[in-house]
Specification:
ten-stranded mixed β-sheet; 973 residues; 22% helix; alpha+beta
């Protein structure tokens, strides 16, 4: 497109270079900037151009351009606004989407810029009207009708009883009091939204000092406020029942019609179905959809052709007598999702490169004319990735699904998953106002549908038992969110399956069982960000599974290789060493750098072949979109999901009567209000899955995208970070209207009795520590070097602290750094306990009965699926086992009680004997009156040998740090 500098209005110089609103008013057929303090103030006799620039996460800008026409604006001003809008879009490189806004029929996107509403004032500049001026001391009583559930359309109507009806909500603004009249057929959500307009009028017209009253349609003189309200209308009289048409008033079933704009006339395009191939880049087209008319402009069209196409769309409205239809103009390559959805199989949207060139040309033209064109090209890129917004010092419990039942996994097995199985996990952790809980299902890539269904049902039962106060998440292997892996810290995913359902499926279908065997050949890709977030994933034993950006562990029985990719980092190499402690402990490993492999290495992989070098891309989080869900019944009683986007959303847009979906591409959140029907609430997860299927934004959402179900009042930080959140609002009682009325009428402010969220850092302090570089041993990449199994870097870090003679005796557990507290009470400020410097660095690893590294003395093999844990030894899944807390400290019995009860078995030291299940820190029936720091001493000699693999005498000879490590693995610390 050739653009002359004469075609670019100087008023648009520098526009769209930063996030926010810019407004111009048409004055004497020229665009004149409107001061920021006057934004949102419109006159009925004027025309305006509004530019909304939004900085996106990918570093680019999104521009939405609106031209607003007052009901009394002149035809010349309206035409100028339409033409100037095209010029502004050209100056921005053709990236913007243009909307025609008619007073009283504005789009919801436009109204969202000026929350809670716009109330145009009478008057105008060139229309012959004078701006209405009212004496500041004289208040004129005005009546407004309000419509809209998400954004409010406000229109002034005559102050007369005949203006009232049962369908709408009205605001009567008098000198000393503001009345809100709720029509009997209006919804709670509409009433709540209208209260925001009442607050606006109270602040603007009354300086925040006036009474507010709500009048319900049907309540007569018995109510004092109702009596006063009707008295202003001359007394009560029945209202006629009127049926008001929808705001846009156009049949939604209008069949789309494609027209080609050929200079001054439009020609219909005949076709059986709409396809992208019908659109020519050298032409402009009009897609008439009834309530919306789209003007599509090819990227190779001239500016004058685009202006003529816009005027043709205006003429189409006049000829069809459709003043309420919206005109939306868009450029090739920047089509909206709604426009693309009108076509059959619109191709995947690609980044348009022509616009940067166009924008650069405009910038160059402006620069030659002396204008500052800096910043026209694009916004500063957003490079940082979000950190996991979850506390990683909590308590984790994991179950494997076997047919329709769940089997609890011991501590040493809960971080070992199989791709053919389904798992349920429950994670409790310190939150804003006490213990928060996340319950999730994880489906392996080769898990069977029956066990997926069973896992979902079992997880829902757990959620119900917690009275819907926990967050539910559904995950698929390979699509885990960033909060998942730090919870497990060290996760190993094996091929095959251990569940009864998977083994039965493999047997019945004659499928080869590739379940991992420690004595066979296995190849593992190691990934992660540190010792508190690392994974080893078994991949196909073949050369194409390698990747230069990762480290791998390959073994054939007792022969072990560690393969170091040329593009891997020192962190990756350290994680590979740590994973060897888990996958093949006590074995030597040959370390091979990429390009110096043995023939034996390639022989195990079958044949040497090409493999990728770039890291496996994960779904990136994009700009969040909020949708409100509604449901309509069809003849067979089924509910049809319909969604409506909420633009420029805030927390106040989410009503307690509705279900909302927050889509950030990498995951989807389903938020369920407290007043949602229980039958619909039970299908919240299915609603999220249906949303993925619909792919409203046409962003190619995968069906395996993580889906969270969050109930009002239990919002976690990884959800509230998308808002400016006040958790006290969701703690209020009543429906949306009652809550807001109590704030507005009685001055009741939502109290925040909760502490501020603790900052979550990438180190996830409390689980493990990354050893200092000085504590890591140097690594040589010589092909002939044999990796001698000795102290790992983690062992060195631990030993450096525990062998310090000045350190405290770690046979006594360190105090808990983060104290859980109930939601009903406000906690005392947390005071950090006094610790030696070395203990402060390492003791966080022992605050909970969990640890990343599995001790070498406990053989790290695949779980024995033939011996599932008995039901009697399973802890109750819905009850989180936590230490007794008093004043922020863990209650510890200071001495051993020597007076053994009669009949109580004793060991060699005269101590009572308890079974292992009662001594575990997560036991649901813990033994009383024991020394918490010496739980292992209460085991019988036989059970001690079974659990520790050694006698008590041998255990006593071990270094203290190694004793503690063994006790942690067995939940006895």
């Amino acid at each position: 497109m050739a653009i002359s500098v004469r075609e670019v209005d100087p008023a648009f110089q520098g526009a769209g270079q930063k996030d926010g609103l810019e407004i111009w008013r048409i004055e004497k057929l020229q665009a004149v900037p409107v001061p920021k303090e006057s934004h949102g103030k419109f006159f009925t006799g004027d025309s305006y151009i509004i530019l909304k620039t939004t900085a996106l996460k990918n570093g680019s800008f999104r521009q939405d351009i609106h031209y607003w026409l007052g009901k009394d604006t002149s035809q010349d001003e309206a035409g100028t606004a339409a033409i100037k809008t095209v010029e502004l879009d050209a100056a921005l490189g053709g990236r913007g989407v243009q909307y025609r806004e008619l007073q009283g029929n504005e789009t919801e996107k436009f109204l969202s810029y000026f929350k809670p509403c716009i109330i145009p004032e009478e008057g105008g500049l060139a229309s012959g009207f004078r701006h209405a001026e009212v004496n500041a001391r004289e208040h004129v009583t005005r009546l407004f009708v309000c419509r809209g559930k998400h954004t409010v359309h406000v229109k002034e109507v005559p102050f007369a009883r005949s203006s009232l009806n049962h369908e709408d909500i009205f605001i009567l603004d008098t000198e000393s009091k503001i009345f809100q009249f709720n029509g009997s057929n209006s919804s709670i959500q509409e009433r709540a939204k209208t209260l925001e307009v009442v607050q606006y009028l109270k602040d603007i017209n009354h300086e925040g000092k006036c009474d507010v009253a709500a009048v319900e349609d049907g309540k007569l003189m018995a109510d004092a406020d109702a009596g006063e309200f009707w008295g202003l209308f001359g007394g009560f009289a029945p209202l006629p029942r009127k049926t008001f048409p929808e705001l846009n008033g156009i049949d939604s079933a209008f069949p789309p019609k494609l027209l080609c704009v050929n200079k001054v006339q439009t020609v219909s395009v005949d076709c059986d179905c709409l396809t992208k191939a019908l659109l020519d880049s050298t032409k402009c087209y009009i897609l008439d959809c009834g309530s919306e008319i789209y003007v599509w402009m090819g990227r190779e069209t001239a500016l004058e052709d685009r202006k003529r196409a816009g005027l043709a769309a205006e003429e189409l409205l006049r000829e069809g007598n459709r003043p309420k239809s919206h005109i939306i103009r868009l450029m090739e390559g920047f089509e909206t999702a709604i426009f693309r959805s009108k076509f059959n199989k619109w191709p995947k949207k690609a980044e348009a490169v022509v616009s940067d060139e166009s924008r650069g040309k405009v910038a160059a033209l402006l620069k030659r004319q002396g204008f500052n064109a800096k910043g026209i090209t694009k916004a500063a890129p957003v490079k940082e990735e979000p950190l996991p917004q979850i506390d990683c010092t909590g308590n984790l419990q994991v179950w494997r699904v076997n047919d329709s039942e769940k089997t609890f996994l011991s501590f040493s097995e809960q971080c070992k998953f199989y791709s053919g199985d389904c798992y349920i996990f429950q994670y409790s952790y310190p939150g804003d106002d006490g213990e928060e809980c996340l319950i999730g299902t994880w489906f392996g890539k080769k898990s069977i549908q029956e066990e997926r269904t069973a896992a979902t049902s079992l997880a829902n039962t757990m959620i119900e038992s917690l009275k819907f106060q926990a967050v539910l998440v559904r995950l698929y292997e390979g699509k885990e969110p960033i909060e998942f892996f730090p919870i497990f810290q060290n996760l190993v995913i094996f091929k095959g399956g251990a569940s009864t359902g998977y083994k039965k499926f493999v047997s019945e279908n004659g499928i080869q069982d590739d379940t991992y065997s420690e004595n066979g050949v296995g190849l593992f890709r190691v990934q992660g960000s540190g010792p508190d977030n690392m994974q080893a994933i078994q991949v196909d034993t073949a050369a194409p599974s390698l990747n230069s950006s990762y480290c791998y562990i390959l073994h054939d029985g007792d022969t072990v290789f560690t393969w170091i990719g040329n593009l891997s980092s020192s962190v990756d190499q350290d994680l590979a060493e740590r994973q060897l402690d888990v996958i093949k402990p006590n074995l030597q490993s040959r370390m091979l750098k990429e390009g110096s492999e043995y023939d034996q290495f390639w022989k195990l992989l079958g044949i040497k072949s090409e493999y990728p070098s770039q890291k496996i891309a994960r779904d990136q989080e994009s700009d969040a979109h909020l949708f409100c869900c509604t449901f309509s019944k069809v003849n067979d009683g089924l509910l049809i999901l319909q969604v409506r986007e909420i633009f420029n959303f805030t927390q106040d847009d989410m009503m307690t009567e509705d279900i909302f979906i927050l889509d950030c591409h990498s995951c989807v959140f389903v938020w369920v209000g407290q007043h949602v029907d229980t039958k619909i609430q039970a299908h919240a997860l299915s609603i999220g899955e249906k949303f993925l299927e619909l792919d409203i934004l046409m962003e190619n959402l995968a069906r395996e995208t993580p889906v969270y179900v969050i109930n009002e009042g239990s919002e976690p930080q990884y959800f509230t970070r998308f808002f400016t959140w006040d958790s006290a609002k969701s703690a209020m009682r009543g429906n949306s209207f009652e809550r807001r009325l109590s704030v507005l009428k009685d001055g009741v402010k939502p109290r925040r009795d909760k502490p501020k969220r603790r900052p979550i850092t990438s180190s996830h302090a409390g689980r493990s520590s990354v050893p200092d570089k000085s504590q890591r041993r140097s690594t040589s990449f010589s092909p002939d070097r044999v990796r001698v199994r000795g102290r790992s870097p983690a062992f060195n870090a631990l030993a450096a602290n525990f062998e310090n003679s000045n350190a405290r005796n770690l046979s006594t557990p360190p105090p808990v750094a983060t104290k859980p507290f109930s939601k009903s009470s406000s906690p005392d400020p947390v005071k950090p306990p006094q610790r030696a410097a070395s203990i402060a660095a390492m003791s966080a690893s022992f605050e909970r009965p969990r640890q990343t590294l599995i001790p070498k003395s406990i053989k790290a093999t695949s779980p024995d699926v033939n011996k599932p844990q008995s039901e009697a030894s399973k802890p109750k899944p819905e009850v989180n086992a936590t230490p007794t807390v008093k004043d922020g400290q863990t209650a510890v019995t200071p001495t051993i009680r020597e007076d053994v009860k009669e009949g109580q078995p004793e060991d060699e030291e005269g101590l009572p004997i308890y079974p292992y299940d009662r001594l575990r820190t997560s036991s649901t029936n813990p033994a009383a009156d024991i020394d918490q720091s010496r739980r292992e001493t209460y085991l019988s000699s036989a059970e001690f040998r079974e659990k520790f693999g050694m006698t008590k005498e041998a255990f006593a000879k071990l270094p203290k740090w190694k004793q503690n490590r063994l006790k942690i693995a067995l939940q006895l610390f």
